[in-house]
Every structure is written in structure tokens, then in C-alpha cells.
Design brief:
The protein has 4 domains: 5-145, Beta Polymerase, domain 2 (2-Layer Sandwich); 149-236, Hydrophobic Seed Protein; 255-396, Hypothetical protein af1432, CATH 1.10.3210; 402-488, no CATH class. The protein is built from 23 helices and 11 strands. The chain has helices spanning 5-16, 26-33, 48-57, 111-116, 142-148, 157-163, 166-177, 186-194, 204-215, 220-229, 238-241, 256-269, 274-282, 287-290, 303-317, 322-334, 346-356, 361-374, 382-396, 409-416, 422-437, 444-455, 459-488; strands at residues 21-24, 41-44, 62-63, 70-76, 82-89, 91-93, 105-107, 126-130, 133-137, 150-151, 183-184. The longest helix has 30 residues, at 459-488.
Length: 491
């Protein structure tokens, strides 16, 4: 793994000014794992004011809008792009009386003091590429824990967990997203189980951010299950856990909770976007509240309606953006749409498109597949799915009709000074056929001139032209429909 030149440049600038500086945090962990870090963080004994002053004099833009000693420095990369490097002053922190943030932040002069305040040993390693050689400071044996794939709290596990209760969720997240089979060290695990209730003090936004990172990972379903096993899920999405051990009917091999997880697993395997993954996880969240009866004949009438309301409440509580709330809620609401090739008509498909939005139809079909595969009793329905896609595309297309024209029946009556009669429809059909042959003619001035020319013909000639136009239009409709059928291999 190569450390980017612009990161080394930041370090060298600090060294040249007489300060210590190290790469720290998750980027060091990823570097040692051989995984490309998403960003690079630097720590130094320079104060925030000294960092700003130094990089500003070098002509760089800096940002300092927090109380934690983190300065953002805008620096150009080797690709001539601008990237923000976060540089933080060494610090040691006081007590955490609210289980969320330090009561006081104190600057420190020692890198070991700075590493001592970090959450897990694998994140408490400092690295310095001096003269092309990698120097590592690892006072808590984080490298050994990386080798053993072990998540261990720095120092006293209970102190680390009670300082910031979100670290419990972070432990699960690291166990989920890091490559390989990771474990949580026994004492750290005990500290999590002992202090679960302190999670109630964490803001919903912070919980949401960790949840999204877990769901975005390749092991998303395993991550959610670990949250449940450790007793943490009930403080994030208690509604989801209500489905645990709630059995379903003969169409499902899993209980409500594990069915949702299996659906998420499929959505993740297919690399679906996060909105579809969340919808897959929550699509049957309304089932426990609507269950009626027992055994293989149990019913869950209107669970999609109840589930949509619950989903909206969950996402609002976690402060998801309104746009995401709307799209995910709609997917849950309409995931159970009925479709049978011989029974559902075009009007039903149009209503579905109207409800969900044409831009969300593909997402709905993906969710439907995740639901089906997640049942554990999936039935192969390739033809039904292809036929549904054909119907959606068919009803979504602009119809071949006089509505396409830039003039209408009212225009015809005004232009020709005539009263309502079948002749108006004949004239519009003739004009439509000419526009289908040459779309450039669909301009009002051109159509008015053509209308006057056609109207100068006698009734018999107009009837003949109308009959020919109607025949040609019907033929075109059949051809277009057949092309759409061929596209989806349907009859």
C-alpha cells in the first residue's frame, strides 16, 4: 500500500516547522490490512492555531469549526485534484458525564497520550513514513490484534465504552465491515453487554450514520444480526426485532425477522443501492402487528400499509433525509402489488406507476425479487417478471394518438369555422399519420396549413384518407408492441 504524496507532503511541512506529526486512526488500520483507506488523518503536537497559521502561509486554505482541535487543510493531490486532510492536535480528554462527548478537551504534547484516548487498539496506532521508511508507534499492541482479527478496547474496556456509548455500535460495525472473520475480545464484549442502556443517550443521527455503514457493507445482514445478539438493535430499530420468532405461513421458511434479513442479504448480494437495502430490511416490519391465526395458514392482511407507516416513523426518528423517507416508505407500501399475467390489466399497471412513480418502478421490482428470494421458498417466475416489465414499458410509452399533435379538436373547429362533427376526428387522424411519417411536421403552423389543404378535399376523399391513416396507425401500434414483447421475450 502506497501512502499518497499529498499526505506525505502535509507531514513534511509539519516536520519542517519543527512539529511532530503522524498518520493515525482508521487509515493506519486499513493500511496495515492492505486495504485502501477512504481518507487520511494526521495528528500533531502543533495547536490548531499553529496548524492554520503554517498552512495559510504556504498558500493553502484551512478550516477550523469545531472544539476538538481538528483543522481541515485543502491540498492538491498528484492528480491535481483538491482533497481535505484533517489534522488534529494531540489531545487527552476528561470524563464523559453524558456518555457521548468529553466534558473538556485538553491539548497534549505526547503521541502516546493521544493514542491512549482512542476507542480500540486497532485504531490506536500511529505511523510515520520518515525518509521512505515506515516507523510505527503501537503502545497497545494493535498490530497483534489486527493479525488476530480481534476488536479490543484501549485500556479499561468499561471506561472506553462508557466514555462514548456509540463505541458499542462501532465495535459491531468493525466486526461487520473489516475483511475476514473478526471477534470482539471477551472483556470488551462484557463491557458492551453491561452498558447497553447508555446507548439511549446517543443522538439518533449518530446511530443512523453507523447503521447506514453497516447496511452498506458486504455483510449487512450479519451486522444487523450481531446488533440483535448483543442487545443493541432494540435501541436503534426495536420494531424490526419485534419480528423475532414471529412465525409465518406456508409460503415462508423463516420467521418475520429472519425473512427481513434474508431479503437484505439478497439485496446486498446484488449490490442494490442503500435505499433498496433499507426497504428490503423493513418491507415486512408490519407483519407482527397484523398477524392473524397460527401455523401455515396465518395471515398478515394490510401489513404493507401498516409497515409503510412504521417505516416512515422509523426513518423520521433516525433523521433520514425527507427524500429517502418518501422513496423507501413507498417501496414498503407497494411491495406487495398483485400481478398475474392473465388477470391484471393495463389500468392496474398505470395505477401502480402513478402510486410509486415511474422513476421508482425498477427499485420496486428489485425489492420484489429480494422479498421472494428472502422467503426461503422462492418460486421461479421469470416469465411473470418479464411480462410485468413488458406491461410497465408498454403503458409508460406515449400512446400513438392525436394527443401527440400540436393542435387539437378545438383548434380545428376555430381554424375551419366548423361545428363538432366526425369530420374533426377524421382530419386529426390524417394529420397524425403524416406526423408519424415525418415528425418534423408536428409544428402548429405546418399542421394548420396541412389541415386547410386536406379540408379542401371532398368528403369521400377525406374518408378514404382517414381509413388509410387509421389502418397505418394500428399497424404501427402492433409493430411497436411486438418490439416491446420481443425485448422481454413474452408472447
Amino acid at each position: 500500500m502506497i501512502i499518497p504524496k499529498h499526505v506525505i507532503s502535509c507531514l513534511e511541512n509539519l516536520w519542517s516547522a519543527g512539529f511532530e506529526a503522524f498518520i493515525v486512526g482508521g487509515c493506519v488500520r486499513d493500511y496495515l490490512l492492505g486495504t485502501k483507506p477512504s481518507d487520511w488523518d494526521i495528528t500533531t503536537n502543533a495547536t490548531p492555531e499553529e496548524i492554520q497559521d503554517m498552512f495559510t502561509k504556504l498558500g493553502m486554505t484551512t478550516f477550523y469549526e469545531n472544539s476538538f482541535g481538528t483543522v481541515g487543510v485543502a491540498i492538491k493531490t498528484s492528480e491535481n485534484k483538491q482533497e481535505i486532510i484533517e489534522i488534529t492536535t494531540y489531545r487527552s480528554e476528561s470524563s464523559y458525564s453524558d456518555n457521548r462527548r468529553p466534558d473538556k478537551v485538553i491539548w497534549s504534547k505526547s503521541i502516546n497520550e493521544d493514542l491512549k484516548r482512542r476507542d480500540f487498539t486497532i485504531n490506536a496506532i500511529a505511523l510515520s513514513p520518515i525518509n521512505g521508511k515506515i516507523s510505527i508507534i503501537d503502545p497497545f499492541n494493535g498490530q497483534e490484534d489486527i493479525k488476530k482479527m480481534t476488536i479490543r478496547a484501549v485500556g479499561n474496556p468499561e471506561e472506553r465504552i462508557t466514555e462514548d456509548a456509540l463505541r458499542m455500535i462501532r465495535a459491531i460495525r468493525f466486526k461487520t465491515v473489516l475483511p475476514g472473520q473478526w471477534i470482539i475480545e471477551k472483556h470488551t464484549e462484557n463491557a458492551i453487554k453491561k452498558n447497553i442502556k447508555t446507548l439511549q443517550k446517543i443522538s439518533q443521527e449518530r446511530l443512523r450514520d453507523e447503521l447506514v455503514k453497516i447496511i452498506s457493507s458486504e455483510n449487512s445482514a450479519e451486522g444487523i444480526e450481531n446488533l440483535r445478539i448483543y442487545g443493541l438493535l432494540k435501541y436503534i430499530i426495536p420494531e424490526l426485532e419485534e419480528g423475532y420468532k414471529v412465525s409465518q405461513n406456508k409460503h415462508h421458511a423463516f420467521d418475520c425477522y429472519y425473512h427481513n434479513l434474508e431479503s437484505l442479504k439478497y439485496a446486498t448480494k446484488k449490490n442494490y443501492p442503500i435505499r433498496i437495502r433499507i426497504a428490503a430490511l423493513l418491507h415486512d416490519v408490519g407483519k407482527p402487528a397484523t398477524k392473524n391465526g397460527k401455523g401455515e395458514n396465518a395471515t398478515f392482511y394490510n401489513h404493507e400499509i401498516v409497515g409503510a407507516k412504521m417505516t416512515k416513523k422509523i426513518l423520521q426518528r433516525l433523521h433520514f433525509p425527507n427524500k429517502d423517507i418518501e422513496s423507501i416508505t413507498n417501496l414498503v407500501r407497494y411491495h406487495l402489488f398483485y400481478y398475474n399475467v392473465d388477470e391484471v390489466k393495463e389500468a392496474s399497471i398505470r395505477r401502480l406507476i402513478k402510486n410509486i412513480g415511474i422513476e421508482n418502478v425498477e427499485d420496486l421490482l428489485k425489492l420484489r425479487m429480494a422479498d421472494r428470494i428472502g422467503s426461503g421458498c422462492p418460486k421461479a417466475e421469470p416469465y411473470k417478471l418479464r411480462h410485468l416489465k413488458y406491461m410497465i414499458e408498454k403503458v409508460s410509452k406515449d400512446p400513438i394518438s392525436v394527443k401527440m399533435l400540436k393542435i387539437n379538436g378545438k383548434d380545428v373547429m376555430e381554424i375551419l369555422k366548423i361545428n363538432p362533427s366526425p369530420r374533426i376526428g377524421w382530419l386529426l387522424e390524417i394529420l397524425l399519420e403524416e406526423v408519424l411519417i415525418d415528425p418534423k411536421k408536428n409544428e402548429k403552423d405546418t399542421l394548420v396549413n396541412e389541415l386547410k389543404r386536406i379540408n379542401s378535399l371532398n368528403d369521400n376523399q377525406i374518408k378514404i384518407l382517414f381509413s388509410q391513416a387509421k389502418e397505418q396507425i394500428e399497424s404501427r401500434e402492433k409493430d411497436e408492441d411486438q418490439k416491446t414483447k420481443d425485448k422481454f421475450w413474452v408472447k
